[in-house]
Amino acid sequence: MNYRERLELLKRELPHPLTVGSEEEMAAKERFRSFFSDFSPSKISELLDQTYAENVWFNDTLKTIEGREALRSYLSHSAEAVEACRVEVAEIIGNGEGDYYARWSMMIQFKRFKRGQQTHSIGMSHLRFDQDGRVVLHQDFWDASQGLFDHVPLLGAMIRWVRRQA
């Protein structure tokens, strides 16, 4: 199922799962912030079940994942591949209809690429929460070439060359 299909399905099934301004809504936003504030294997094992619904649909522009157990595996593998990763969520804004938009900046230090060098990128995430305040839809919008691919040998050089040609 793609992003648009999943979004339409959720709009029908969960039109307004959280009350705007409620304690439940504030707690859901804070769980999301906390989950990514220090992206590490221990954080994933501690907070994934509280943060993401069992039937979550997730896309970070690199991969689409369906289901919390598949997400656990993917995020654990991703966290193992970095020395450090922090995401600062600047704000999470809701539209009053069940959609939330998180504006964030991310710092990553990779284990395999450019060791010791911090990589910075910015992005937005479209979120929908279930009635328990867990993320049931997570679609990222960010420039993966800047945040990741620029730092892969050969591929990064080609991306930088293409940018200079434009």
Characterize the structure shown.
By secondary structure, the protein is of the alpha+beta class. It has helices at 3-13, 23-37, 41-51, 68-80, 144-147, 155-165, and strands at 52-59, 64-66, 82-94, 100-110, 119-129, 135-142. Helix 3 (41-51) packs antiparallel against helix 4. It starts with a helix and ends with a helix.
Provide keyphrases for this structure.
166 residues, globular, six-stranded mixed sheet, alpha+beta, single chain
Helix and strand arrangement:
Layout lengths: L2 H11 L9 H15 L3 H11 E8 L4 E3 L1 H13 L1 E13 L5 E11 L8 E11 L5 E8 L1 H4 L7 H11 L1
Parallel strand pairs: 1-6
Antiparallel strand pairs: 1-2, 3-4, 4-5, 5-6
Helix pairs in contact: 2-3, 3-4
Strand arrangement within the widest β-sheet reads 2-1-6-5-4-3
Please indicate the percent range of residues in DSSP E strands (runs of 2 or more): 25-35%
Largest sheet: 6 strands, mixed
Strand pairing plus helix content: what structural class?
A: alpha+beta
Order of helices and strands: HHHEEHEEEEHH
Share of helix, binned:
25-40%
Number of helices: 6
Kindly, what is the distance between the CA atoms of the first and last residues, rounded to a whole number of angstroms?
Answer: 34 Å
Shape: globular
Total count of strands: 6
Which spans of ≥5 residues are poorly predicted at pLDDT below 50?
A: none
Mean model confidence by pLDDT: 88
Rg from alpha-carbon coordinates: 17 Å
